[in-house]
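Hi there,

I know you've been waiting on this one. I reran it after we fixed the sequence typo, so this is the corrected version. Both the input and the resulting structure follow.
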Amino acid sequence: MSETEAATGSDVRSGGCLCGKVRFTVTGPVDDPHICACKHCAKRSGSPFQWWVGFPMPGLEWTGAEPTWFDTHPGKTARGFCPDCGSHIAARDHGDDTVIGILATALDHHDTDPALVPTNLNRLPEAAPWLAQAG
């Protein structure tokens, strides 16, 4: 990203949890906006799917409290959540310091940012069987 882009904030997004304790900014391009329908995301979130977006890890800054991390796949993947309100915020893979996964709904303007529109649906065979019929 150029200094001009950084100065204008064109690639800077902010977000946080429901209660506001956990806050962050991410700077850089959106990577792989997608919906995951795996049983793991469904169980953890209480929803039939989750909407994930990747960002460059070096562009992540915790501006409030950092989330509490839980190893959902021990030694492989940790998920970050607010210890007060329980909001799911992020995911990181151990040993990968290049990308941070952010739940799109944790971003402040997820509903108006065209760069966040999901480009694929991951793990569809694991989705709730009625999901394809809901429409």
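Quick highlight: Residues 39 and 126 are 6 Å apart (CA to CA).

Best,
R. S.
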